[in-house]
Write a structure and sequence with these properties.
Blueprint (H helix, E strand, L loop, with lengths): L1 H43 L3 H5 L8 H17 L3 E8 L2 E8 L4 E5 L6 H12 L5 H30 L6 H39 L1
Antiparallel strand pairs: 1-2, 2-3
Helix pairs in contact: 1-4, 1-6, 3-5, 4-5, 4-6, 5-6
Length: 206
Amino acid sequence: MALTNTSGDSLKMRIRCTLIMCMTVMMCEAVFDVARTMTANDAGKISDTETSAGEDASGNVLCRITAKAAVAVSNGLSEGFVYQRRETDGTVSDCLVNENSHTLFTISPGCTGLRQVVTFACIMLTAPGRAKQKVGYILIGGIIILTVNLLRIAIIACTCHDAMEWFYPTHDIAGATSVYGTMVLLWVIHIEKWIKRGEKEKLKTR
């Protein structure tokens, strides 16, 4: 009877944690979308003269770091990738370029993985567990997510090196699934460990 009650409580806890996680992700995505819209509106107010005078329209050093790291990983998997900063219509972009100086794609703030790390941190903060353990898990999980994101960009670059028609399938489907899948998997591992620890403590007290 004790095992049955423990299993039932565990199922309720899994459902509750899943609902909280889904709501947290939806709220984070909504906040990011609003912030992106506001940033785009503010960028549109900048004159061409101001932008050409040295304003980095990407506005994000993390894009540059991500692009350079992605080039290094891409060259580790294949060869012929170069990082370049290019200006188009007054907008400075961090680009991955092939050996023919053809731009494969640019790295935008949404490509850095920061959005997913912040979302992961939020769902972990709302998850049950000890604060110290969750902070450590967030740091480790953030590093894992950023690493997976770099591998994602590198695989997209290698896939699109000679066949740009594969960009959208690898970027929108495989790429997004890998990063968000990693984020959810890390959350599931934490929740399962916490539930199993609770089940053991309940059985000891009975």
